[in-house]
Amino acid sequence: MNIAEKIRSKGIKATPQRQLVYEVLEGLGHAPIDEITRKVRAANPCITVATVYRILDSFQEAGLISYLNHPNGKSYYDITPDVHHHIYMDNNEILDYTDEELTELIKKRLQTGKFKDLAIEQVSVQIFAKNKPQK
């Protein structure tokens, strides 16, 4: 499915500006707004920062992308809208980690303890890692 089809599949009109914002985020994977805006405006200086914000908000609201708060204090947009976890590397790289079994295990564990009266809507695990030294 191409970018325009992905956008339209969520009920959003696939304007050139929206396609460009999605293409930039697709290339970045995870990125803060300033990085997305810089790349979008480098490709098309006529797109305002406010427009980029509005487009990203509409993508997130439609479930086309997701949003995460990085442990470094910055907020990031994420091209992956599905439930997944994040591995934060010591070089600031963010890796996606999908493990349905882990997600279900955490939900079940929470529902048997003191949180049994809660309806767990989503589980998001943050893993902090660094590369092992080479031997």
Could you please describe the fold and organization of this structure?
By secondary structure, this protein is α+β, with helices and mostly antiparallel strands. 42% of the residues lie in helices and 18% in strands. It is built from five helices and six strands; from the N terminus they run ααβααββββαβ. It has a three-stranded antiparallel beta sheet. A hairpin with a 4-residue loop joins strand 4 and strand 5. The longest helix has 14 residues.
Order of helices and strands: HHEHHEEEEHE
- Beta-strand content bin: 15-25%
What is the residue-averaged pLDDT? 92
Beginning-to-end CA distance, first to last residue? 43 Å
Instruction: Point out poorly predicted stretches.
Output: none
How are the strands ordered across the major sheet?
1-3-2
Radius of gyration: 17 Å
What's the tally of helices? Answer: 5
Which assembly state applies to the chains in this document?
single chain
Main sheet record: 3 strands, antiparallel
What class, by secondary structure content? alpha+beta
Shape, please? Answer: globular
Helical content stands at: 40-55%
Number of strands: 6
Q: What is the topology?
A:
Blueprint: H1 3-8, H2 16-28, E1 30-32, H3 33-43, H4 49-62, E2 66-69, E3 75-78, E4 85-89, E5 94-97, H5 100-112, E6 126-129
Parallel strand pairs: 4-6
Antiparallel strand pairs: 1-3, 2-3, 4-5
